[in-house]
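Sample A.
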Amino acid sequence: MDWLGKYPPALEKAWDVPRSICLPGIAEGLGVSRSALHAPLSKLLNDGLVSERRAHVLNAGTRRRKVYHLTIEGRKNSEFRENLTPKGSGILYGNPPESVELKGRSKLLSEVLKIEQPVMIYGLPGIGKSSLLRAIVDHHLDAGSNVRFARMTKFSDAASIISAWGFEYTSIQAIMHEVGDDILVLDELHEVSSRHAKSIHNLCKNFTHIIIASRAPPPFTDGFNLVELPPLELSAAVQLLSDDSLDKREHVSRRLGCHPLALQMYDQEMTLPEQGEDIQAWVEKEVFDNLSLESLKLLDELAAIPLPVPSQNLRQESQVDDLDMHALLRWDGKNIELQHLVRNVRFPHITDDELAMLLQHWQTQGGSIARLVELHLRIICDAQPETYILKHADELMLLHDAGLAVLVDDAIAIRPTPALYKLATIIAIERGEPEIANEFLNNVDAPDL
């Protein structure tokens, strides 16, 4: 009730509502599994404290979804009160994930805040790195510090990270002069491409007040104080599950390795993994088996796409709700993607025919993200990527030069040709990367360069 109490009564008549008042959004905000909310929501509905209706959830597909509001009686009974205690006036730059209620991380959070920066937090996919980062962001904002947040994708380079941090120029010297005591935060470091890894490292090592999160093992660690994020303690893991007996919840938590994402995906009808069985194998066997054929098509589509995309561009947009109810999605502002653990499990099983249909669909979508996805799919489908790249290089360079540089490298890795090496050299020169250009020049017979 306190969670819903944060939202004004005017939202009850709105057509477009935030995801945070539908079941998956409430569950994530409270840090529990979807199934853990079924019984308490039913009781609140029966007691007249909460109402239910269908509305369009922003950035989550076109299908209307069940959303929840406090009734007048519910607001009288809610303990939520607007916090009138003055907090710090820190300014947030960038778009971090939503704040959530952390389970079992308060001690670790306190320890991380005491560690001298720079800090590198690392751990398994789905272990809660982004949620911990958001808690760190909130702490510094409340303390009055400015925080600058950025998130790495396959196509990010140093310039795009600097822009996400809210700086208007790319000179490291100028940024170091302006940054002062601002806290820099970078999530998903492991997504960095080999093409841009060195420049990202060179950027990050210049700052003292920087906190980075990465899947294990991080691409670089020198100069950073390392913090490994472990699975939850058993006493915290059981809090994510429904109101079964404590013995049952402890049994489930142990079998799922106290892994936060696995616990959120768990449903009482699922078979638990055997002792010591790999979580990824359990996801493939149990979670995917509960999906419809249409939802599996969306699962494959998102598994084939290497960055968050707008839901309206998806071929199977109507199935977003189903994947969200199974805790398989994550949001980056207005864009969505698969949980990375899920993406890693599913991608190897996508058929060539499915990839070809996805390519056919993304050719019809507009925007710079769609062009990157289209070229990515052409490369993994081997659908004449070189011809496409050479024909559209100028356009792609203007749309997203960092992404084009990565994708040309990908194409070269699969089928190196003199024309691609020449283009890669030109891209590096235009991006002001002489060392990279010289590496490519060794494979180019082009006196004009």
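Sample B.
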Amino acid sequence: FVLPKDLSKYRRQPGAGTLPLMELERLPKNSLDYFPQGLYVQVSTVEDFHAVLHQNNVRYILEFNFKTKEALIDNMESLPVSKKQVIISLDPFYPQDLEESLQQDMDDLVGLGYESFMVNNLGHFALFDRKKTNLIAGPYLYTMNRWAASFLENQNIEAFVSSYENSRKNLEASFEQVHRKKILLPLFAYPALFRMRFTLPESYDFNYFTDKEGEMFKSLSTPDGSFVLPEKPFSILDKYAQMQSAGFSRFLIDLSKTKVAKGTYKQLLRSMYTAEPLEDISRFNWAEGFYDPEKIAQYKKANLNRETFSKSRPRRPKGS
């Protein structure tokens, strides 16, 4: 039996001296041609793909889901950009009973000329064995330290999407200047906080709810599953120039799980290039970090005080 206090030392950020050095062979000059520096944008549908077309985008990430499978494979729809500019992102949920059908889908996409894929589950690697493809580690592979990155590099993965839960301090501690060209840094997203592998029933007639802290959330139900998203998006768009100065050169605007309007996308670009923060946004863990033992202790104490107060309040007798 392991007590929470026994795990505290493993939750701490290790010192730089204990982190493994990523002393791998120098990358060939053209090895990251499929992963150019610049702006990447991610969407969930072909319709939204058209809404985010912009001359400044160097790559477009399209989620592979029920709708996009129908569009790309069944209907063989053409996208408005070269297939070399498209990255297909796979869902992190990968049960064994989908292995055969997903393998066929990936074979079909490669046969249609798609070359770049974002993997979000370790099981995805086998789908691309003996295929001439470019693989990028998605945010659900959590390259939040050098151990994770080193493991993936040994699987021939050379590019990583920083996790939405990451903090600037941890990101810069994990990747030295020479390795930051391998990172795709999210600047904006509505990250899925919870994922459910079923469609919500019609009787579920409300989309918005709040937690006990008063934060607002919304539910989204699709043929691929249901999701809980924050009402306020994560955004560090106004930090774009700062992160460029810090050595990062690949940036992501993630508009998946949302309906995109051209006006909205232009507003996001304006915030990015003018360094003016958007209203009603969340920084998530960017500034404060994803684990702070002192704040966790304060949070637990506050909850305990609330529970104690609630139990101590006199209850009115029934019928009064």
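B remarks: Confidence is low (pLDDT under 50) at residues 13-17. The chain is about 25% helix and 20% strand.
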